[in-house]
Design a protein that fits this description.
The chain has 15 helices and 15 strands. By secondary structure, it is an alpha/beta fold. Strands 3-2-1-4-5-8-9 form a seven-stranded parallel sheet, sandwiched between helices. It has a six-stranded parallel sheet with strand order 12-11-10-13-14-15, with helices on both faces.
């Protein structure tokens, strides 16, 4: 089987890195097309030996990209076209059908109640999504919560499949030596209590809540923010105004899997291992990948929204706790977690439930059903 993945961009982000991890584990021949921004993940995929094509799309209304994508699909003789993120789903479904490929699968990575991929939902966005959705065979939701949102949007239930995001659990396994080495490289004082936040530095992630909470916590508490994005300067100014700029570390974008040429130093597993608690103040998540990665590292987690945990049976993630409210709520919760003392750094059932191998196996079932459905149609 030969599959083409079409994605809006390949900068460092959750959907982009999830694609790279999936391609590593899918037992099919995969190529990738990025409509825009062939960033760091494109380089990593190429280093992995994956063929990556950049379509050079200039904007959402660059219709000249459509015939170029049709030619790529037709020339590659793909059995399945798998699209990721809104723009790629719209253009990719249309292009696949024009190229004669009917086995089209789309993954919805980032649908919230009021936003998609960090942008406000409008009736026009919804209408275009639903019109193009009919051209595919299956729409994959990364959580049952997203599946329910898709049903409320109007996507027929039988067309929706749930394939959770996956992680390489072994990559996040706690390593005491790696923890100490990473903390030294970051310049953290010995004995510092490190609260971590992981994700794109955008307004929707609400990391300013953690900065404000830090101002109410003891001076040996530090905040480690892992990710890049447009709100970094705003967060730096917030930290300065709160008098905690010297206790907030910004790492920029970091890969969640190693580079093909042998590691990348301060990668995401190393940075999570350096933390004492992960805090996720985002109020509207589609899955909550950073929470699952932190659980795999054995960290206690405080979160506002995390379908990945809430969709599991009670007790699957005993050290994950929901926090409702703003900075004051996180101050109280962080004080309580710290007072409870360190726990054994072992991965709970929840982390193993979201193994990337399980996700890849489930996706293969969907690919097979899509291609068989075409041949019997």
């Amino acid at each position: 089987m030969k599959a083409l993945h079409v994605i809006t961009g390949l900068g460092v982000g959750g959907a982009e890195q999830q694609l790279r991890l999936l391609v590593r584990h899918l037992p099919v021949d995969c190529d990738v097309v990025t409509l825009t921004n062939p960033g760091a993940v494109a380089e990593d995929l190429t280093a992995d030996g994956v063929r990556v094509m950049h379509l050079g799309m200039h904007g959402n209304r660059d219709l000249s990209a459509l015939p170029r994508l049709v030619r790529e699909i037709r020339g590659g003789r793909y059995d399945v076209v798998h699209t990721h993120l809104y723009r790629a789903c719209v253009y990719g479904r249309i292009a696949a059908r024009l190229a004669g490929v009917r086995a089209v699968v789309a993954t919805e990575h980032s649908l919230g109640d009021s936003q998609m991929e960090g942008r406000r939902l409008t009736s026009g966005v919804r209408a275009l999504y639903l019109a193009s959705e009919r051209l595919g065979r299956s729409t994959v939701a990364v959580s049952p919560t997203v599946a329910e949102r898709l049903r409320r949007w109007g996507v027929p239930g039988p067309r929706i499949e749930v394939v959770p995001n996956g992680i390489d659990v072994a990559r996040f396994r706690f390593d005491a030596d790696r923890r100490e080495s990473t903390r030294r490289r970051l310049g953290l004082p010995r004995g510092a209590y490190v609260v971590g936040g992981v994700g794109r530095l955008t307004a929707g992630k609400r990391f300013e809540v953690l900065v404000r909470a830090l101002a109410e916590l003891p001076e040996d508490v530090w905040l480690l923010l892992v990710g890049g994005g447009p709100e970094e300067n705003v967060l730096r100014r917030t930290a300065q105004a709160a008098g905690v700029a010297d206790r907030v570390l910004f790492t920029g974008e970091r890969p969640n899997i190693e580079a093909a040429q042998g590691g990348s130093g301060l990668d995401l597993p190393s940075l999570i291992g350096a933390m004492d608690t992960l805090a996720s103040p985002s109020a509207e998540e589609a899955f909550g990948l950073a929470v699952v990665e932190a659980l795999a590292a054995g960290l206690p987690v405080l979160y506002v929204s995390c379908p990945a945990v809430d969709d599991l049976p009670p007790g699957a993630a005993p050290f994950a706790r929901r926090v409702q409210g703003g900075a004051d709520s996180f101050v109280r919760a962080l004080r309580q977690v710290r007072a409870q003392g360190p726990k054994p750094r072992s991965a709970p059932e929840a982390a193993h439930h979201y193994s990337i191998a399980r996700s890849a196996d489930r996706l293969m079932d969907i690919y097979t059903a899509a291609t068989l459905g075409v041949s019997s149609a």
